[in-house]
């Protein structure tokens, strides 16, 4: 696999993140809402959750309780919501990653890309999704990625931590000039903290995932940092 389509970090800074979470993972979803609130956003970036057994899930946005709508499939999300979703967070199992991501590509016309959290995605599925992302000019981080974070702009995944104290301690609301890239989720957060301890701030951080065939290659990640005007 060779790098063809580069993740455009600066373009992502200019969008309003509107995210579908594929499968419920309350700790990660709440951490994203905490980030959104502390970043001064008016409403959560998570617009829909794909799961079963309920119509809504309850979360906190600051001190206010909010209801995030739940749908059994991406296809069942109302048309006006599907048209505005531009990012996905795939929290499904490794075996279901392929079908869920393909459905997101097929059903969400404004989609720019997303994150695959699961480990153990079959290698053939990872390669096929990489090729599909190239074809559709979208990005995918993963498999086994804790996500992407742009300070004060977006948090897509568990990156930066799932406790609000981790977010504030890591100064993830004060943009800087250091990009943090890693295959390891734990190491990503550890390096962010090391950068902060040295008196620096991050421009962005991402985990491209630790499996054999990452769907955003390390080369793609480093090129994204090289081309980002905020990263020095």
Task: Report what the structure shows.
Strands 3-4-2-1-5-6-7 form a seven-stranded mixed β-sheet, sandwiched between helices. A four-stranded mixed β-sheet has the order 9-8-11-10, with helices on both faces. It is built from eight helices and eleven strands. β10, α7 and β11 form a beta-alpha-beta unit. The longest helix has 14 residues. The chain is globular, with a radius of gyration of 16 Å. The chain starts with 8 loop residues before the first helix and ends in a 5-residue tail after the last helix. α4 packs parallel to α5. The protein has 232 residues and is an alpha/beta fold. The model has no long low-confidence stretch (mean pLDDT 95).
Helices and strands in order:
Blueprint: H1 9-13, E1 19-22, H2 26-38, E2 46-50, E3 56-61, E4 64-71, H3 79-82, E5 87-90, H4 97-107, E6 113-116, H5 123-136, E7 139-141, E8 147-150, E9 154-156, H6 164-169, E10 178-182, H7 185-197, E11 202-207, H8 218-227
Parallel strand pairs: 1-2, 1-5, 2-4, 5-6, 6-7, 10-11
Antiparallel strand pairs: 3-4, 8-9, 8-11
Helix pairs in contact: 4-5
**What structural class do the secondary elements suggest?**
alpha/beta
- Low-pLDDT sequence parts: none
Could you tell me the radius of gyration in angstroms?
16 Å
Global shape: globular
Number of strands: 11
Q: Count every helix, treating DSSP H or I runs of 4 or more residues as helices.
A: 8
Percent range of helical residues? 25-40%
- The share of residues in extended strands comes to 15-25%
Q: What is the average of the pLDDT values?
A: 95
- Could you give the order of strands across the largest sheet? 3-4-2-1-5-6-7
- Give the terminus-to-terminus CA distance: 28 Å
Q: What kind of sheet is the major sheet?
A: 7 strands, mixed
The SSE string, one letter per element, is HEHEEEHEHEHEEEHEHEH
